[in-house]
Amino acid sequence: MDKMIIEGGEKLKGTVEISGAKNAALPILVSSLLCEGRSTFHNVPELMDIKTVVKLIRGFGAEVKGAKSIRVDADRLDNVEASYDLVKTMRASVLVLGPLVARMGRARVSLPGGCAIGARPVNLHLKALEEMGAEVTLQDGYIEAKASRLRGATIYFDIQTVTGTENIMMAACLAKGTTVLKNAAKEPEIVNLAEVLKAMGARITGAGTETITIEGVDRMTGAEGTVMPDRIEAGTYMIGAAITGGDVNVLGCDPLYVDALITKLIDAGITVETIPRGVRVCGGNGIRSIDIKTMPYPGFPTDLQAQMMVLLAVGNGLGVVTETVFENRFMHVAELIRMGADIIVQGGCAIVKGVPALKGAPVMATDLRASACLVLAGLVAEGKTELSRIYHLDRGYQRMEEKFSALGARIRRVPA
Ligand code: EPU
Question: Are residues 79 and 185 in the same domain?
Fold first, then answer.
């Protein structure tokens, strides 16, 4: 297994181009399962999770070709089972459930287990499908869902769930009648997916708000779609510029998508300005400690919580990080402490007291965003950091070491 070696202390300088969003590309690729004919998707990031979803879609009988632009022909599907082997490597595989039941009348998908950031149940996905007339059973670790044709329903989500909203929005496209999703998640990736579904013939209004209305249609046909930029990747490089006292142009990502982060960086004393195609982030005038509370969009994203904790760890003063989306998303704290950070976790809060410097150390990644946090910590730390288990990073960041190296960081991948 490869490792990442980082020698800290360089100020990041230059320009970085943001890739397509993993969390938009995954549901968009899956949406092709609803369609007769061929779909083409552009700006798909080159990531492990994308390879996994391609494998999943091929397993149902679809033809898939290409990399950055991917063509999917799902005209003839001949299988409706997503195996444990694939689902265990990527929880988002559960997104195939809605489209398969809607198009094929049946799906058998391994029930995702818990993961490093929490129990992450899919009960709301299943309840919504039942409310649309599906018969859902759990057997031998698999979810089995059947419905000769789903019917429109009014669904109220107890909690805003991103993939839950996407799964049911896709299922409702081919249901009989109208579906109304209440307390739907509002993430921009959902809007991106809805745009693609509409190009395929779906009738959807309200994506990006708490109420999404979907009028079912009898068939959908393949279409073209473009994956939005990855706001979490953009945020990770913005934080990198801030903590190293650097000066970086982050291009290809609309500043609107990273609004919550920009506000927090400015509160912390970082200069952020809007430039054509992106934002410029300049650090170097000290970091004021701030408090952060993660919330569903448009609140501060949980997917940037770990990275932002590095900024607090080297800030001046005391900051509190409150995680409200996942119950166990502080796995990076123990590793940051090994690098000299002063952090205490109490329930869903981490109290971070800034220290003058972090020190390089061997550290281990536990999940995708925790890995990104440890790379950032390595970039700002004195000395050498060796990050192992970097397969987590490859799931969600396209060629991260190349992008950071181009900004002047001393970071390299070595075989373990
Ligand atoms: N939840 C339930 N029941 C459900 C569904 C969700 O209790 O049926 C709970 C979850 O346990 C969690 C909360 O609701 O406490 C919100 O979870 P959500 O369903 O929104 O998360 P998700 O759809 O599984 C997506 C992203 C995550 C991101 C979260 C929150 C994708 C493929 N994944 O997950 O991304 O953290 O939304 O924004 O879109 C990542 O990229 O590193 C990542 C983990």
Answer: yes
